[in-house]
Design brief:
Elements: H1 2-25, H2 32-45, H3 47-54, H4 60-69, H5 74-94, H6 99-118, H7 126-129
Helix pairs in contact: 1-2, 2-3, 5-6
Length: about 130
């Protein structure tokens, strides 16, 4: 069973990474949760892939912040908020969708924003205060 788990986790990690990269270009597809999910799968299956992702020039910093301290820096919160809100404007105001569909979309985004902005922006640990 253990031999089957590693390839499965690597495959799930790669799929999550691909979805995260696609999310960079599609505002309503979130990038960060998929990158965190990829890191989780890689941490369970491949030290090499996990290390590569943590050291990546784009994803590495925010990922290390999250894995080490459960922190999302304000800069990334603002970027995520603007991108998701921008992606939501067109369907809400310019597509003829049912009102309940629009309400579900807005409600979902508000839940995401609530979670995002409830996370700390700075680490409270003593070691990071010295940096």
């Amino acid at each position: 069973m253990k031999n089957m788990t590693r390839p499965l986790y690597i495959s799930l990690g790669l799929a999550s990474l691909v979805l995260g990269v696609i999310g960079i270009f599609l505002p309503l597809l979130p990038t960060t949760p998929f990158i965190i999910l990829a890191a989780f799968f890689f941490s369970k299956s491949s030290k090499k892939l996990h290390r590569w992702l943590r050291q990546h020039s784009v994803f590495g910093g925010p990922l290390r912040d999250w894995e080490n301290n459960k922190v999302i820096k304000t800069k990334y919160k603002i970027i995520a908020t603007v991108m998701v809100a921008a992606g939501l404007i067109y369907p809400i105001f310019f597509l003829s969708l049912a009102t309940h569909v629009k309400a579900i979309a807005v409600g979902s985004v508000l839940i995401v924003f609530t979670y995002l902005w409830s996370r700390p922006s700075k680490s409270l640990s003593i070691t990071n205060q010295k940096k």
